Amino acid sequence: MKKLIFFLLVVLAGACRNTDNRFVVNGFLSDKSFDGEMIYLVPLINSSKDRVDSTVIADGQFKFDVAVDSTEICIIRAKPVLRFFLQELLVVKEPGAITVKIGPNSVAKGTAQNDSLQHWKENKILFDSLLYTRRKQYLEADGQSKLLLKHQVDSLARLFTEMNFQTALNNKNNVVGKLVGQMMSPLFSEEQKKKLNNK
Description:
It is built from 5 helices and 8 strands. The protein is α+β, with helices and mostly antiparallel strands. The protein has 2 domains: 22-108, Carboxypeptidase-like, regulatory domain (Immunoglobulin-like, Sandwich); 114-197. A 4-stranded mixed β-sheet has the order 4-1-7-8. Strands 3-2-5-6 form a 4-stranded antiparallel β-sheet. The model is unreliable at 3-18 (pLDDT under 50).
């Protein structure tokens, strides 16, 4: 009996250790119209065929449960013809579990880096929309209103740059910071770039 208890404890301990190095995605869609379709977890960099995970959507849901060798950015995506309806989603493959909702505007939450990435995405969408609207209004305006709109566009652009910089700076030691830093580098001043490059 003692040997059996010891064996069970060893097995349970091993199982607990294994879950520390696993990335679990619990995925949901708004309805069941995509049941039977494949969905993929693709590394953003070095996405060779043997590094792509896939699963089938069933009952409006899907799940990935994969080992984590190193933290990296991945894309959750469907086949190309479905991507108009099912927006691709960047996620951080890191130990832990996340919940994702895939649709016209896909979202993820559940781990620290995925929450940071989602927060950045939402802010970027907001700023993109505001800047597009103000720039369009600026191009169509004249006189005093054009000067006012130019000031608003410039202020929004500065805030947008600062938002991206703070996201990169606050995450400079992880893959979220590296991604945002690389994508938004053209916006940053030389001083900001130096701060990001300092270890």
